[in-house]
């Protein structure tokens, strides 16, 4: 049995996302990964402060946290700039 609709929906062909959307999604994915890495290092630092750990290990963890935070901040600025350069992204994201 078939039903004929009086106003059938118009089908659209699949279109890949614009390059600026794909780039933004990649940057947001990386930003999320950096946040997780920062939290992992903070957890390591907290653990190292309550157990007997070499001062060099603590120093290494602190250096890594600063490096990850710097990369995170830089990527946030790049994302803001990317959105500013593509006004269509401002509404969607």
Would you kindly provide a written description of the structure presented here, covering whatever features stand out?
There is one protein chain. This protein is mainly alpha-helical. It has one domain. Helix content is 74%, strand content 0%. The chain has three helices and no strands. It has helices at residues 19-50, 55-85, 87-92.
Kindly state the percentage of residues in helix.
over 70%
Give Rg in angstroms: 23 Å
User: What quaternary form is this?
Assistant: single chain
Spatial separation of the terminal alpha carbons = 44 Å
Name the poorly predicted regions: none
Summed up, the helix count is: 3
Number of domains: 1
Q: Report the sheet-strand fraction.
A: under 5%
Main β sheet profile:
none
**What series of H and E elements makes up the topology?**
HHH
Q: Name the overall outline.
A: elongated
The tally of strands reads 0
Average residue pLDDT = 92
Class derived from helix and strand content? mainly alpha
Please give a quick description of this structure:
With 93 residues, this protein is mainly alpha-helical.
